[in-house]
């Protein structure tokens, strides 16, 4: 194995998992080690609940992400979400759907094929996903979640060519499933700006990934049941130390999967959003207790993909409504 390990190291990859859990010396552009993310924030009502609860708990939320997809929001809802996020100097990241999990194919629901759920099935679905990205960008959103490597590569080409705004960021979803330093470096090369690692990776495995890539990692401190249902609160200080720059992400165990969200489950969605923020408060309290020197970003810090609330975006939204 020694020759294989040496060859990996010649590529700038670790020779194995980082069982010594070394400090990460990498940081966000503002010098901070960590930021806070609340997932499953499905629209302006949920975002308003997140903001209100964060104020009540006295914590800062740097990014919210959504899972139902751009396609499940009206233009007015996207514009309102962007406006609310802008008022807090907060990033909002919308999922670019559809994908295989919502398609008519059987592989994504088969026992051996569930790993393809986040992938795009056929070229038409790639077109549809990229249309979600374009529509979000037109309405001022500057961060989208992607779960397919082909979509990531094409979206990066669109950004490079000016077909998408240069400041657009691509947050790779946990549904991508890449689980080792080499695979995640490939995602970085394809244009990923942040990468959500699988929820069950050990500290040593996460530390090895950090040695191989420079982009921020998104790590679930508490994950939904369909992603394992893990509660890793006491690992949080070590996660920040070895994975910096890292978005610490607070999902919720014992909670229903609400994708795609709609008004029929509005009360549930808002209750879940508030409790995720409370879970974040618990995590941040623990982090301050055991790693008080950990550095957190301020709202609006460099590197956040803040909404671009321009007159052009609002006009595009109005035009879309008239056309509809």
Describe, in plain words, how this protein is organized in 3D.
The protein has 324 residues and is an alpha/beta fold. The chain has a single domain (21-323), classed as Aldolase class I (TIM Barrel). It is built from 10 helices and 8 strands. Strands 1-2-3-4-5-6-7-8 form an 8-stranded parallel barrel, surrounded by 6 helices. Helix 8 links the parallel strand 7 and strand 8. Helix 2 (44-57) packs parallel to helix 3. The radius of gyration is 19 Å and the shape is globular.
Give the topology:
Elements: H1 2-10, E1 34-38, H2 44-57, E2 63-65, H3 75-87, E3 91-95, H4 122-138, E4 143-146, H5 149-161, E5 169-172, H6 181-190, E6 194-196, H7 203-212, E7 217-222, H8 236-243, E8 246-250, H9 266-290, H10 311-323
Parallel strand pairs: 1-2, 1-8, 2-3, 3-4, 4-5, 5-6, 6-7, 7-8
CATH topology: TIM Barrel
Domains (count): 1
CATH first level: Alpha Beta
CATH superfamily: Aldolase class I
The share of residues in helices is 40-55%
List unreliable stretches of 5+ residues: none
The major beta sheet can be summarized as: 8 strands, parallel, barrel
Tally the beta strands. Answer: 8
CATH architecture: Alpha-Beta Barrel
Principal-axis shape equals globular
Query: What does the radius of gyration come to?
Result: 19 Å
Strands ordered across the widest β-sheet: 1-2-3-4-5-6-7-8
- Determine the strand fraction and express it as a percent band: 5-15%
Q: How are helices and strands ordered from N to C? A: HEHEHEHEHEHEHEHEHH
End-to-end separation in angstroms reads 62 Å
Mean pLDDT metric: 95
Q: Helical stretch count? A: 10
Content-based structural category: alpha/beta
């Amino acid at each position: 194995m020694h020759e294989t390990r040496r060859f990996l190291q010649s590529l700038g990859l670790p020779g194995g998992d980082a069982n010594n859990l070394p400090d990460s010396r990498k940081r966000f552009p503002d010098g901070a080690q960590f930021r806070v993310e609340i997932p499953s924030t499905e629209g302006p009502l949920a975002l308003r609940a997140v903001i209100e609860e964060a104020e009540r708990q006295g914590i800062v939320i740097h990014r919210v992400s959504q899972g139902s997809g751009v396609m499940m929001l009206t233009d007015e809802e996207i514009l309102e979400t962007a406006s609310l996020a802008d008022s807090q100097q907060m990033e909002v990241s919308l999922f670019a759907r559809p994908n295989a999990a919502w398609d008519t194919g059987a592989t994504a629901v088969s026992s051996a094929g569930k790993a393809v759920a986040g992938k795009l099935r056929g070229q038409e679905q790639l077109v549809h996903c990229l249309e979600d990205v374009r529509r979000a960008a037109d309405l001022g959103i500057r961060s989208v979640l992607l779960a397919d490597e082909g979509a990531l590569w094409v979206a990066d080409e669109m950004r490079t060519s000016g077909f998408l705004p240069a400041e657009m960021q691509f947050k790779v979803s946990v549904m991508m499933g890449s689980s080792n330093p080499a695979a995640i470096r490939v995602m970085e090369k394809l244009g990923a700006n942040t990468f959500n690692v699988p929820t069950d990776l050990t500290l040593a495995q996460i530390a090895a990934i950090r040695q191989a890539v420079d982009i921020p990692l998104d790590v679930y401190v508490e994950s939904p049941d369909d992603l394992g249902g893990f509660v890793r609160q006491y690992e949080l200080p070590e996660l920040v130390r070895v994975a910096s720059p890292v978005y610490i992400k607070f999902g919720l165990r014992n909670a229903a999967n609400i994708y795609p969200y709609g008004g029929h489950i509005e009360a549930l969605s808002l209750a879940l959003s508030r409790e995720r923020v409370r879970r974040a408060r618990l995590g941040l309290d623990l982090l301050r207790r055991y790693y008080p020197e950990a550095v957190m970003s301020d709202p609006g810090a460099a590197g956040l993909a803040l909404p671009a609330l321009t007159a052009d975006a609002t006009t595009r939204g109005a035009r879309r409504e008239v056309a509809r």
